[in-house]
């Protein structure tokens, strides 16, 4: 792990890729996070690593985690990131009172949308936005988008499209239905995160794609040709029309305690039809943010 | 791939890139790329004859050199890669961007008959990982390209660090390279491409006749 440059302090996480260590930069004495990548035999450098590094080298924004260095360890790679305190999920679990504060929610949501708008303006989709991938600097009260392993440049045409991206509960309906997708998938995920910050509970908790779709439709209504042209061409929809419906719920009853402007924004972010869903850029201009504290 | 089935036009190139179907014939970009690279190699060989210093002094870039010059045209090699990996046409445009960047980053490096196959295989594999959502493993790409998995992994690793992981291709860059390829088709390039295709036509026909099962290991030992 670039042992000459960075001294490990403690292990702070792990995943399919390898492990993450909190380290000290021996030159600058700065604290950094080092992600050690383990390669699968015969697989070479994972595409997620190629994308994460190459995209983060292009992105420079206060609400996107900074990649400081890439270390060549002969047959493995270490990614050196700026170190932040914790992710949004842990923040909500550890500091529920602060996390529930309407001003904190507003400030954090504004910053998340700034990061997403920046990505989209550079024609980059994140595709895996969820509380665990949003890192927080507690001192400065800054949120940063992290984990660009599933991110993708969406201006270049490509032939193999996977809809198996993102975590189920934050996955947009067009992904679940196998539609072609673009920037609106990130806005849907941010909408789910917004609702979760307000209620401290994931908005959708199904464990299968069809269960999540049923939850989507029971909360937001069954889409039809009027609300989402072309949606009935997808097989899953016709099956769902025939299946016993979930008890109809109202978004207002589920996400309570949100000011009217906030609820209006949430509804626009959770629009089933991606073509009618609000963009991240337009969301930043919404009246909900009219009195938001200046962000860095 | 009969010559008659290929309309050599900028429009054809563009439609391949933006409305490519997986069951389509060989995309035109492959012939255009082969033509461009062959021309670059011819120019480099001419320079090499005249200047002793034209050989790469950068030890790192020598990783792409083969012990022996492979007996396979660029066109045939690219077609083989396409046939077995089915990477979409835009992968080849992005690979071309990478080759161009690589040559700019390493001015002493010259594409020649000894390094072109490995460079193409590496850039196409990396471009595929960058562009496409579903990819074969390095071990499969290695078999397609006539390399060992260890060689393929090493080439990829060296290439990524030599490029400094500067692999992002934005829309305007992609478009400008598409335009460059289109110009290659329209401004006299068509003749060169047609010659390349004619020269390979027999080779392709015989290869198709004698082609073994999809997963058979490559026999071109680079």
From TrEMBL, chain A:
<dbReference type="GO" id="GO:0000082">
    <property type="term" value="P:G1/S transition of mitotic cell cycle"/>
</dbReference>
<comment type="similarity">
    <text>Belongs to the protein kinase superfamily. CMGC Ser/Thr protein kinase family. CDC2/CDKX subfamily.</text>
</comment>
<dbReference type="GO" id="GO:0004693">
    <property type="term" value="F:cyclin-dependent protein serine/threonine kinase activity"/>
</dbReference>
<dbReference type="InterPro" id="IPR017441">
    <property type="entry name" value="Protein_kinase_ATP_BS"/>
</dbReference>
<dbReference type="InterPro" id="IPR008271">
    <property type="entry name" value="Ser/Thr_kinase_AS"/>
</dbReference>
<keyword id="KW-0132">Cell division</keyword>
<keyword id="KW-0498">Mitosis</keyword>
<dbReference type="GO" id="GO:0051445">
    <property type="term" value="P:regulation of meiotic cell cycle"/>
</dbReference>
<dbReference type="GO" id="GO:0106310">
    <property type="term" value="F:protein serine kinase activity"/>
</dbReference>
<keyword id="KW-0131">Cell cycle</keyword>
<dbReference type="InterPro" id="IPR000719">
    <property type="entry name" value="Prot_kinase_dom"/>
</dbReference>
<dbReference type="GO" id="GO:0005524">
    <property type="term" value="F:ATP binding"/>
</dbReference>
<dbReference type="InterPro" id="IPR011009">
    <property type="entry name" value="Kinase-like_dom_sf"/>
</dbReference>
<dbReference type="GO" id="GO:0007165">
    <property type="term" value="P:signal transduction"/>
</dbReference>
<keyword id="KW-0418">Kinase</keyword>
<dbReference type="GO" id="GO:0010468">
    <property type="term" value="P:regulation of gene expression"/>
</dbReference>
<protein>
    <recommendedName>
        <fullName>cyclin-dependent kinase</fullName>
        <ecNumber>2.7.11.22</ecNumber>
    </recommendedName>
</protein>
<dbReference type="GO" id="GO:0000307">
    <property type="term" value="C:cyclin-dependent protein kinase holoenzyme complex"/>
</dbReference>
<keyword id="KW-0597">Phosphoprotein</keyword>
<keyword id="KW-0808">Transferase</keyword>
<keyword id="KW-0723">Serine/threonine-protein kinase</keyword>
<dbReference type="GO" id="GO:0005634">
    <property type="term" value="C:nucleus"/>
</dbReference>
Automatic annotation (TrEMBL), chain B:
<dbReference type="InterPro" id="IPR012389">
    <property type="entry name" value="Cyclin_P/U"/>
</dbReference>
<dbReference type="InterPro" id="IPR036915">
    <property type="entry name" value="Cyclin-like_sf"/>
</dbReference>
<keyword id="KW-0012">Acyltransferase</keyword>
<dbReference type="GO" id="GO:0016746">
    <property type="term" value="F:acyltransferase activity"/>
</dbReference>
<keyword id="KW-0132">Cell division</keyword>
<dbReference type="GO" id="GO:0051301">
    <property type="term" value="P:cell division"/>
</dbReference>
<dbReference type="Pfam" id="PF08613">
    <property type="entry name" value="Cyclin"/>
</dbReference>
<keyword id="KW-0195">Cyclin</keyword>
<keyword id="KW-0131">Cell cycle</keyword>
<dbReference type="InterPro" id="IPR013922">
    <property type="entry name" value="Cyclin_PHO80-like"/>
</dbReference>
<keyword id="KW-0808">Transferase</keyword>
<comment type="similarity">
    <text>Belongs to the cyclin family. Cyclin U/P subfamily.</text>
</comment>
<dbReference type="GO" id="GO:0019901">
    <property type="term" value="F:protein kinase binding"/>
</dbReference>
<protein>
    <recommendedName>
        <fullName>Cyclin</fullName>
    </recommendedName>
</protein>
């Amino acid at each position: 792990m670039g042992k000459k440059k960075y001294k490990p302090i403690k292990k702070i996480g792990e995943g399919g890729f390898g492990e993450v260590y909190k380290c000290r930069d021996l030159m600058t004495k700065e604290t950094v996070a080092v992600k050690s990548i383990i390669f699968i035999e015969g697989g070479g450098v994972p595409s997620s690593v190629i994308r994460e590094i190459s995209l983060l080298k292009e992105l420079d924004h206060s609400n996107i985690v900074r990649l400081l260095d890439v270390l060549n360890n002969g047959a493995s790679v270490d990614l050196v990131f700026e170190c932040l305190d914790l992710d949004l999920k842990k923040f909500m679990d550890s500091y529920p009172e602060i996390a529930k504060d309407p001003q904190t929610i507003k400030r954090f949501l504004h910053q998340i949308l700034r990061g997403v708008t920046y990505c989209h303006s550079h024609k980059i989709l994140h595709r895996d936005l969820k509380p665990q991938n949003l890192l927080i600097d507690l001192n400065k009260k800054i949120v940063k988008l992290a984990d660009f392993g599933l991110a993708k440049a969406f201006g270049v045409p490509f032939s193999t499209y996977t809809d198996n991206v993102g975590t189920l509960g934050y996955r947009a309906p067009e992904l679940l239905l196998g539609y072609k997708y673009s920037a609106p998938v990130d806005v849907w995920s941010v909408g789910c995160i917004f609702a979760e910050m307000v209620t401290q509970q994931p908005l959708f908790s199904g464990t299968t794609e069809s269960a999540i779709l049923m939850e989507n439709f029971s909360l937001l209504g069954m889409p039809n040709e009027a609300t989402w042209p072309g949606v009935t061409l997808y097989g899953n929809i016709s099956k769902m029309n025939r299946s016993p419906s979930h008890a109809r719920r109202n978004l207002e009853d589920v996400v309570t305690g949100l000011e009217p402007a906030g609820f209006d924004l949430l509804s626009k972010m959770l629009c089933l039809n991606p073509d009618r869903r609000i963009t991240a850029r337009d969301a930043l201009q919404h009246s909900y943010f009219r009195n938001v504290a200046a962000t860095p | 791939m009969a010559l008659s089935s290929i309309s050599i036009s900028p429009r054809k190139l563009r439609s391949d890139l933006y409305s490519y179907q997986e069951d389509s014939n060989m995309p035109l970009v492959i012939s255009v790329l082969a033509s461009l690279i062959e021309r670059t190699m011819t120019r480099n060989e001419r320079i090499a004859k005249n200047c002793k210093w034209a050989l790469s002094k950068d030890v790192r870039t020598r990783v792409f050199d083969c012990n022996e010059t492979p007996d396979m045209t660029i066109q045939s090699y690219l077609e083989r890669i396409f046939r077995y990996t089915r990477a979409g046409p835009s992968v080849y445009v992005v690979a071309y961007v990478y080759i161009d960047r690589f040559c700019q980053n390493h001015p002493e490096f010259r594409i020649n008959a000894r390094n072109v196959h490995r460079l193409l295989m590496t850039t196409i594999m990396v471009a595929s990982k960058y562009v496409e959502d579903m990819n074969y493993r390095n071990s499969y790409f290695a078999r397609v390209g006539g390399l060992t998995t260890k060689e393929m992994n090493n080439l990829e690793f060296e290439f990524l660090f030599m490029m400094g992981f500067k692999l992002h291709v934005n829309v305007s860059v992609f478009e400008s390279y598409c335009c460059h390829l289109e110009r290659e088709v329209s401004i006299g390039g068509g003749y060169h491409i047609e010659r390349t295709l004619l020269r390979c036509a027999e080779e392709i026909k015989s290869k198709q006749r004698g082609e073994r099962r999809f997963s058979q290991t490559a026999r071109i030992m680079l």
